[in-house]
Specification:
Pfam family, one: 2-Hacid_dh
Keywords: NAD, Oxidoreductase
CATH superfamily of the largest domain: NAD(P)-binding Rossmann-like Domain
Domain D-isomer specific 2-hydroxyacid dehydrogenase catalytic: 26-320
Order of helices and strands: EHEHEHEHEHHEHEHEHEHEHEHEH
CATH class of the largest domain: Alpha Beta
Bound molecules: (2R)-2,3-dihydroxypropanoic acid
Structural class: alpha/beta
Mean pLDDT: 98
Domain D-isomer specific 2-hydroxyacid dehydrogenase NAD-binding: 113-289
CATH architecture of the largest domain: 3-Layer(aba) Sandwich
Number of strands: 12
GO molecular function, one term: glyoxylate reductase (NADPH) activity
Radius of gyration: 21 Å
CATH topology of the largest domain: Rossmann fold
Oligomer: single chain
Low-confidence stretches: none
Helix content: 25-40%
């Protein structure tokens, strides 16, 4: 029997991550990348000392109450931890970590792709060409919105928000933000702080969401707040679907109150919202904000760094519970 800690890697991770894990742990892998059921997840907690899950494995209070005492640590392969009931896990004495920083660039890239694509109607043009429907050209053909020189509002000026602000400056956008705390001037780098979310919304020709999903932020962009955005604004969400009232967003896009939206995250994942599919002015991606080779390796390694620290008796750097 191995004297190494037993680790379940709940989803198929990068080859480099799995190889490194196999060196230091007695690893249980999931080569088919199957999504385990709630019952299987609970049963697995009795077989291992540690789990390395993604945001697809849900540790609700109910699940947490049934986890085995053998399980000591959940080292998430995600920055978001809304799939974990942190209070319940803490009460059970199970350590929880996440993977901040390493996915900020990749996620901001996708946010900017959505912003540009939604503004310039890129998915619509792509669909037109694929369907063989590009039959004419005129000065009024597929006119979108210019990004350069416009105002971008950022909700949540954490790591991803700050990278997004830097990308936006490269496009000469004027950056405004709302955050629980005002940033230090060197991090703010000229961005305009709004103490009140509604004030930010009122000036945001583009709005990009970068805050975590918590009970306080769930439904943050509800009907009333969407209505506070300027006429013809564009909403981008790469954070979590729970932040947006999707029915209200559909209405705002249908009526043209909002010009477009770019979404990488949805209330229901996988699957998304079928009502969005009927709209031309929405650019959707299937939750791929952090999906680059570099970033996946970095996320896997960061999760393993946290496990290594824990099993060496040190405090994991990214402990969240
Ligand atoms: C994260 O890390 O939270 C991303 O959404 C991928 O899970």
């Amino acid at each position: 029997m191995s004297d190494k800690p037993r680790l379940w890697i709940a989803r198929k991770l990068s080859a480099a991550t799995e190889a490194r894990a196999a060196r230091d742990y007695d690893v249980v892998l999931n080569p088919e990348d199957r999504l385990f059921s709630r019952e299987e997840l609970i049963a697995m907690s009795g077989e291992v000392d540690a789990i390395l899950p993604c945001h697809s494995e849900v540790f609700s209070a109910e699940v947490t109450g049934q986890l085995s005492d053998r399980l000591k640590i959940i080292a998430n392969h995600s920055v978001g931890v809304d799939h974990c009931d942190l209070a319940a896990l803490k009460a059970r004495g199970i350590v929880v970590t996440n993977t901040p920083d390493v996915l900020s660039d990749a996620t901001a890239e996708i946010a900017f792709l959505l912003l540009l694509g939604a503004a310039r109607r890129a998915p619509e043009g792509d669909r037109m060409l694929r369907a063989g429907n590009w039959n004419s050209w005129s000065p009024s053909f597929m006119v979108g919105q210019q990004v350069t020189g416009k105002r971008l509002g950022i909700v949540g000026m954490g790591r991803v928000g700050q990278v997004m602000a830097r990308r936006a400056r490269g496009f000469d956008m004027e950056v405004h933000y709302y955050n629980r705390k005002r940033l230090a001037p060197e991090l703010e780098a000229g961005a305009v702080f709004h103490e009140d979310l509604d004030d930010l919304l009122a000036v945001s020709e583009f709005l990009s969401l970068h805050c975590p999903a918590t009970p306080e932020t769930t439904g943050l962009m509800n009907r009333e707040r969407l209505a506070k955005l300027p006429e013809g604004a564009i909403l981008v969400n790469t954070a979590r679907g729970a932040l947006v009232d999707e029915e209200a967003l559909v209405e705002a896009l249908q009526s043209g109150r909002l010009a477009a939206a770019g979404l990488d995250v949805f209330r229901t994942e996988p699957g998304g919202n079928p009502a969005f599919a009927a709209l031309d002015n929405i650019f959707m991606l299937p939750h791929i904000g952090s999906a680059t080779r570099d970033t996946r390796d970095a996320m896997g390694f960061r999760a393993l760094d946290n496990l290594d620290a824990f099993f060496a008796g040190r405090e994991p750097g990214d402990r969240v519970a």
